[in-house]
## 1
Amino acid sequence: MLDAKAYYQRLLEYEKEIRKVTDFVPEVAIVLGSGLGDFAKNLEVEAVIDYGDLEGFPVSTAPGHAGQYIFGTLNGVKMVCMKGRIHYYEGYDMSEVVLPLRLMRVLGAKTVIITNAVGCMNENFSVGSFMVSRDCIASFVPSPLIGPNIDEFGPRFPDMSEIYDRETIDKVLRIGRETGLEVHEGVFIQLTGPQYETASEIRMYKALGADCCGMSSAVEAITAAHMGMKVCGISCITNMCTGISKTKLSGEEVIEVGNRVSGDFEILIKELVRNL
Ligand code: HPA
């Protein structure tokens, strides 16, 4: 069973280690997904911490996911970027998957922008456009809150009726209109991966009400909401899902499209930070 006390102590130790390097207190955290890996270049950087410098910290093995916290300021907003996330398919327990996000809350962040690359099953949306999450389906992955509750973070049975902040969703949609970027609102479903979905699975997820799917993010949103953070989820649509896409899916294609639209993704996120 998860040793909740030891887990919490570990987070406080990591906080202490980071505080030896910087006293920077972020207001906003951002989890950088595929295509946004270079986002931190927009910051006036104050400090960089490699995950590898924190003893026992989970290290990302996914391509395009360097493991670093980057602290800095963007338009006067104090931010911490999580460059490199941990995925459940890498083999870590879910409590480890969400540990880097928990640490950003411990360091002071009260708002989190969770970004990712997604496949799309809503045929009204197109590749290269964006979706801001209205809600998510996480029933197909273990809850990140399983195990003894860490009371310091939040309640045993947290409410999820407003997991994503409505006001922030509206801001993202408005920024889409103002910038001319195609931004949709929809429901995100997290699956374990690492295999892409079958066509029958996609038909099922669509029938359940999902618009886009990915292999991360909903568990991070749940964890952040548990800790009382304001959560915003923004996805870059890199492909149509199996059965809808005319071509076979590959990780390379997802990264290639993610890189191609990274300029638009950066504009959207920069504008959001400016308007938070
Ligand atoms: N399925 C799951 N995760 C993804 C996809 C997909 O089609 N595209 C990008 N991440």
## 2
Amino acid sequence: MCKVIAVANQKGGVGKTTTALNLGVGLADKGNRVLLIDGDAQGSLTISLGYKEPDRIEVTLATLLSEIMEETEPSISEAIIHHAEGVDLIPANIELSALEINLVNAMSREVMLRSLVDTIKSDYDYIVIDCMPSLGMLTINALACADSVLIPVQAAYLPMKGLEQLMKTISRVQRRLNRNLVVEGILLTMVDCRTNYAKDISQLVIDTYSDQLHVFDTTIPLSVRAAEISVEGASIYQYDPKGKATAAYRTLTEEVIKHA
Ligand code: ATP
Ligand code: MG
């Protein structure tokens, strides 16, 4: 059975794309068939996997979603890129922002991505969706088709307000669109273990949420090497096999598999 995981937080720059990429490749390393979906018009996941000019890619998530809106057969096999690290990718580019605007007037606008995912689910063990930093229509689509949502939280600022808003959106989606949606967990990212501030934030997240939600035991340390992979076109396992963030993403992968 395929598990669909949306990586979401409307706060920008918290490690969503880095997590989607390295969780995806980590799951593939364990022998799973993995599809990554870039759900952000910035195409950061697409770029991070080495496709430096996403706007030149012709068939992307926007193409597939517009085909679904027009009730034509989506050109899935043309869109899927097979990456050398053993994951498949449905890329995204700037066209996704125009698509998101068109989606607003479409019938069943919240479940377009679900229609797409339903047609390809049987080919994969995991589908990981990298969401954009907003709670707009595409993020709602991702939540509406996901089995779980993984929430990266940067341990360097007070995340509580943003998290409350995200939880409200998740509850709304659970009530109206997807009763099966669960929170996979909150993942603390960019944890600078040297500072008390990072420790305080981590503790605050645990104190506030751990009785209602899973907070991953694994935390992702702040790492310059992790920051560099977005321009390297490879996962952290390739780029920095012995690094501490690499080890953390490996442990996270195991936690996600165990949690299934
Ligand atoms: P956006 O909201 O813009 O989509 P995001 O939530 O997807 O951002 P990333 O792009 O994964 O976040 O990360 C934001 C920045 O922080 C990037 O430059 C990335 O390389 C860097 N980064 C990610 N993880 C770490 C880490 N563990 N240590 C240091 N830097 C990191
Ligand atoms: Mg991103």
## 3
Amino acid sequence: MKINEKRLLHDLRHLRSITATPGRGVTRLTYSREDQEARNYITSIAKAFHFNIRVDGIGNILIAPPASRARVLTGSHIDTVIHGGWLDGAYGVISALEVLRTFAENDYPHDAALIIFAEEEGTNFGSTMTGSKFLTGKYGDAQRTTLCDSQGRSLSMLAQEAGLDPAENILPLTGAELMIELHIEQGPVLEENGCDLGIVDTIFGQTTIRVTMEGLGNHAGASPMQYRKDALMAACEGILAAEKAVASDPYHRAVMTVGRINASPDCSNVIPEEVIFTLEVRDSDTERMQQYIDEIEVLLQKAAKHRRVGCRIDPIASSAAIPMTPSVVSSMDRLAREKQLAYRIMNSGAVHDTAMMADIMGTGMIFVPSASGRSHVPQEDTAEEQLIAGANFLLDVLREKAGR
Ligand code: GLV
Ligand code: MN
Ligand code: MN
């Protein structure tokens, strides 16, 4: 049994066309008009196949063929970063949908179901894997109102505006035993090593903080350098010190990013009074990640003191490094060897909802290569043959794990 290649590529290309930034990558934020259009596209396909569809108040979707007991979940997310690529998330969702369609057309009895996690990227609220955090009890009612976007709109508000019923219970996943996610690698390892497939053994941990430097706004010409309390210069000094600390990681695993920074009043001839930025650290070792965060907080305070500005640090989100279930990794390893695929077992530097699912069920992840190792940018791509091979491998894994 093989998936329908044309249908897979057609649906992926269709999702690529649903973007708020045509010609400048895929921008499809959870709860946006584009997100609703993509959801409708997928659910209309599911309806045509008479699959059952359930949607919760956060926007997580579960799609199960009528005879399936949804014992094995497979899927990913359809939201993106701003000006992102066409495959991050969408590939795992459309491939899973394609496998379910192939099973249906072949009258293949199974217990698999498609899960689509809401707000994986954290583009709205700065907190990644939001849908799966709700599904696994890490987030509860409080976060529906405390998670707010940059304009102060809460998750509840956005969900309601998107036509979801925020009071709707979180999807019950009783009976689900295993989560298998197919995804693009988003880094260079598979391509550099001539592999078509990766089997993930650990998903990195990620901690994100919000830093506010509070200085003194003043005239950019009339304020001599020695009198200034420049919030942006304090941020620069602190960020560079943090980078130096993480870049010296002896294991070459830890990474640090300041992906969002705002200076106000954001005016060329005014000394920045306030600077707010996010800073995240990731590592395959949770304890080491936390040590870097602790060290960085000290370095940021030191830079603020040196520049005579205030510094406040607020936690945004944190998730531990998560190993995939060893028996799942070894059975995928055996299957890839039997199929004579060029593959390797590897870590995931990116985070994925599957990591959140790990405390309530078994987990496994499959990667396909990312061209030039690029992702979260419009250039994100994977060769068609590799997309097809990855989806067929997912089908084989699901036959083994979910077939009856
Ligand atoms: C999600 O894509 C992440 O790893 O930031
Ligand atoms: Mn993703
Ligand atoms: Mn992503």
